[in-house]
Amino acid sequence: xxxxxxxxxxxxxxxxxxxxxxxxxxxxxxxxxxxxxxxxxxxxxxxxxxxxxxxxxxxxxxxxxxxxxxxxxxxxxxxxxxxxxxxxxxxxxxxxxxxxxxxxxxxxxxxxxxxxxxxxxxxxxxxxxxxxxxxxxxxxxxxxxxxxxxxxxxxxxxxxxxxxxxxxxxxxxxxxxxxxxxxx
Amino acid sequence: xxxxxxxxxxxxxxxxxxxxxxxxxxxxxxxxxxxxxxxxxxxxxxxxxxxxxxxxxxxxxxxxxxxxxxxxxxxxxxxxxxxxxxxxxxxxxxxxxxxxxxxxxxxxxxxxxxxxxxxxxxxxxxxxxxxxxxxxxxxxxxxxxxxxxxxxxxxxxxxxxxxxxxxxxxxxxxxxxxxxxxxxxxxxxxxxxxxxxxxxxxxxxxxxxxxxxxxxxxxxxxxxxxxxxxxxxxxxxxxxxxxxxxxxxxxxxxxxxxxxxxxxxxxxxxxxxxxxxxxxxxxxxxxxxxxxxxxxxxxxxxxxxxxxxxxxxxxxxxxxxxxxxxxxxxxxxxxxxxxxxxxxxxxxxxxxxxxxxxxxxxxxxxxxxxxxxxxxxxxxxxxxxxxxxxxxxxxxxxxxxxxxxxxxxxxxxxxxxxxxxxxxxxxxxxxxxxxxxxxxxxxxxxxxxxxxxxxxxxxxxxxxxxxxxxxxxxxxxxxxxxxxxxxxxxxxxxxxxxxxxxxxxxxxxxxxxxxxxxxxxxxxxxxxxxxxxxxxxxxxxxxxxxxxxxxxxxxxxxxxxxxxxxxxxxxxxxxxxxxxxxxxxxxxxxxxxxxxxxxxxxxxxxxx
Lengths: 184, 608
Prior knowledge:
Number of helices of chain A: 11
Shape of chain A: globular
Strand content of chain B: 5-15%
Largest sheet of chain B: 6 strands, mixed
Helix content of chain B: 40-55%
Number of strands of chain B: 8
Number of strands of chain A: 0
Helix content of chain A: 55-70%
Largest sheet of chain A: none
Order of helices and strands of chain A: HHHHHHHHHHH
Structural class of chain B: alpha+beta
Distance between the termini of chain B: 27 Å
Structural class of chain A: mainly alpha
Strand order of the largest sheet of chain B: 5-2-4-6-7-8
Distance between the termini of chain A: 57 Å
Largest interface: A-B, 93 and 98 residues
Oligomer: heterodimer
Radius of gyration of chain B: 30 Å
Radius of gyration of chain A: 19 Å
């Protein structure tokens, strides 16, 4: 029944769309893939009304679904990787040297380095860091991911350590070198 | 404060909630504990990444998706429902997938196997009407023949097409509500709607001109591994300034983004062509110079330029692209520079599209050998670099001649080509060994040794020369710079193992580097600042690097270097007394006002 699904969407899902998109974008750093994740989460919510309707914390339920879709969707998620602005040809008269919409938001070399390093993390490591940065406490992260709280601490530690390592491996320099030149 | 307490702050997300006293304790701990500092900085870096505002049409898209009837995939694949989420972009809301292959029964068979709806329209069919919903089948159910090439025109996904007066205040950020209202209003602007429709149609029209192009309805990333798939994206665009604010534009222009990429069955993509350009919205005017630079609305010109570029950078090159280049290269009546440019274009075509073999023909080889006799030495070096990897033995004599008589830079290029392609040849090997043993120039000897014996002796040479105090500063750095910034025909590429190479420098090498880099004059390619910044950042905890940075901060003649040193020191060791002291001094008395201001920013609330 499309009407019922729409009603459910408007009442129970739409209020959390911004949160869902923000988390999804932080996970995949790519707008199109983030939109896919959000769409799939919406479908799940509207096609499992009992499970979703009985959830005490709708947003946690939605984030759990989104995270599951994220974990499951590696292949699709990888189909669009970050586009480097270096590849834009500013010499062409057609072109503006200004960056495009998605890419421009990653508006510094330093941030591109960080984003690339983040995308090298394992899926669950990305999830944990994103939920942590989103402000969810360990209890909430436990509810969303199903990972025991003590294990969570260890995994967060490993995620940060991995990220630091990837950052150091990126172009041989941390982003602090930018003033000297971004060409590594 | 200890490691457990710092970790607890990170785990509990209290980084921004510390009082000044706690903050000082954390800073003090980080200054003495590399592990905690790394983790803290990593989490802070992720938190600082910019978010993207929710696309204005996402709610509408999701609503349409949940309302759409479910189409089950035979393998349980997900449903694809793509909806024009705002009428402004309805023209681009259709999903169009192209097959590029010679028309024939096999292609027809593929189309015939497609579940409905299958879009195999003739070339003059219009695009789907505004608001069309296209429900794609699960792609796993579709079989694609080998050698198929697909291009998918992706729906523009409601990029926030902001349009602002050039005099408008650009301080409004992208995510503020007022701007989103403006985005929605602009997205419904009939002029924009029309422009995007025309641009989409024009791009489609241009793609149809490529021989063998047919339309199917399929998600190319889920096709057979043997296939070649391409994706095209057309969208309006927004320019964000480096400060994060939306750049002002005038009311007559629309930013558009046109992207193309090759996508692989494993989901990765490559060979991207990306444009962010401005399209004029002044319709119905005439212009003496139509095309991309026109001051009138010219979707056809924009589309032509885009597809031409796509053919050069993304799609496998076809005859219409390569034939004129081969002709120009072989034409003795052409200016030498024009012929070299044609060769460079062929190389770029090969490099960008991955279509190997474009330079292997006998005709190309003949032209290159002829050109090698005509050009200046520097151009000859470029020739050798372009031909490296081609491996045609007809080139050996020319390379050996160049090695015997050209200036050192050209000889190095000749050695690289000889080593890469012909070191198995006895006469090449003996020549390279002789050069490695007795050439007057150390770098030439080392490059020849590398060509014969590989990377290990070369790496030793790089470090040895760096530490050799009998050489001038430039000579000491020459090999390192040559190693990290190899000279490629396309230029601008650093060594793929840059991180490892710089990270592997031992303490003595780092100390030698720190000693010599501030004294060196400009190196080839002017890479001094990159070398300094990257290696210093990599080895920031080495006392010699700290000393060097302090020296640079205090006395380097170029403000850019002083600012870089301040940045590195300020981020890595802000609480070390002598660093703090030097930064305060620079903030107060650096001769350059820009440097003083910058250092004050580095110091933050500790600035004098």
